[in-house]
Amino acid sequence: MSTPSAGLAQAFSNVGHSFSHILTILYPTVVLALEPAWGMTFGELIGLMIAGQILFGVMALPAGWIGDRWSMLGMMVLFFIGSGIAAVLTGFARNGLEIALGLALIGVFASIYHPVGMAWLVREATNRGRALGINGIFGAGGIAAGPLIAGLLIDKISWQAAFIVPGVVAIVIGLALAACWALGLVRESKADKKPVPQPARGDAVRAFIILSLTMLLTGFVGSAYMVMLPKVFAEGMSDVIRGGVLGAGAMVTIVYAFAALAQYVGGRLCDRHAMKYVYLGGFGVQAPLLFLAIGAEGWFLLPLTIVIVFAQVVANPAENGMLAYFTPGRWRATAYGAKFVLALGAAASAIPIIGWIHDTTGSFATVYVVLGCMSAVVVLASLWLPNDRVRTEPAPAAAVAQPAE
Q: Domain 4-390, CATH 2.40.280.10 — does that match?
């Protein structure tokens, strides 16, 4: 980042990434407290997330389009304040219907971040791989913090506080961003700080087609695993955590704390190697380990889960970097919106599937098989992605600029 405004843009974008995940991952841990309190099954309660997750994905496309046409900064202010208010309202829910409506409202406003916040970050970045890696750390940190925050607030106060407290904090950050914008401390750039050479049209089309498939699958795998983890640890490590909600949340936090490091590792790898191979490698490691996780329990479950999530998260900066590389700057927020329609739409479909499988079979074994097969398909499809590295041999003066990836 080369200016104070760009530095603040990265800071707010990074914090926004954390909150987009914190606010949308609180509920799977809250479910553990609602099961005995409301007398509902895991499948029934987790199903209340479906509308929110669908809107989290579907609304990303219009959010990105508005960000490209109106203002990325304005949309970011709306993201913080809107999602914060929605979380506070969810904390006052009295029944399943009100929980579902609250989660749906969170999904609408939280959908703004990924298409707009990431496009804003890429536009301001002078080193995309590093910027996306750091941004990914904050995203994974949000996923890690969400279950711990929820578990702590549930144990110390109530499940309602698990929504209200993070919601109030998000509103305050949104007001701070609005103030910085009004004072001119944060400005909106109209072009990339560091332009990159445009890829060949054929490569861009091929990348779009292949990434559309892989993003659909990775969205399903990543979200299904994230949503089921509190329950996986509650069952697979019951002797260790002794049935506590905080214990299950803490295990998920440990997993995603390592995932935060994976984001940075993935970003740095993308600066040094073709993003295609970073992407392929991450899922090449994850696919067989998902099959190994069937029936895993006790302390072995924790390191195995860490490696499974680490492998996928290493590939995240590559996926986002390739999307930016193969998309013209003026359409980037819209492209990220399309990505998250696919990824988060798939995530929404994962929720009833994993809930139904668990309630029907009493375990997640079948879920692991499905996720392992999907990861294997991602590996095979990635082999056909175009190479995103610009040639290093001498080039005409107009084309010397190196890609920041």
A: no
Please provide the distance, in angstroms rounded to a whole number, between the alpha carbons at the two ends of the chain.
Answer: 15
Q: What are the structure tokens assigned to 158, written together? A: 């109530």
Domain coordinates in residue numbering, the chain: 4-390
DSSP H helices, 293-364, are 301-325, 332-361
Retrieve residue 193's tokens: 């700080």
Check whether 405 has a pLDDT greater than 70. no
Residue with tokens 């199903």: 47
Ordered DSSP codes for 189-230:
-SS-SS--PPPPHHHHHHHHHHHHHHHHHHHHHHHHHHHHHH
Element (H, E) at 69: helix 60-69
DSSP, residue by residue, 2-19: -SHHHHHHHHHHHHHHHH
Q: How far is CA 101 from CA 50, 217, 236, 394, in A?
A: 10, 27, 31, 58
Unique residue bearing structure tokens 């530095």: 7
Residues whose CB is less than 8 angstroms from the CB of residue 130 and which lie 6 or more positions away in sequence, other chains included: 267, 268, 271
pLDDT digits (tens, 9 = 90+) for 106-158: 999 999 998 898 888 877 776 777 787 788 889 878 877 888 899 899 988 99
pTM equals: 0.71
The rounded radius of gyration (Å) of the Cα atoms in the chain is 20
- For residue 321, give the nearest of 143, 224, 196 by alpha carbon: 196
Q: What does the block give as tokens for 372?
A: 């392992």
Sign of CA dihedral 216, 222, 225, 230: negative
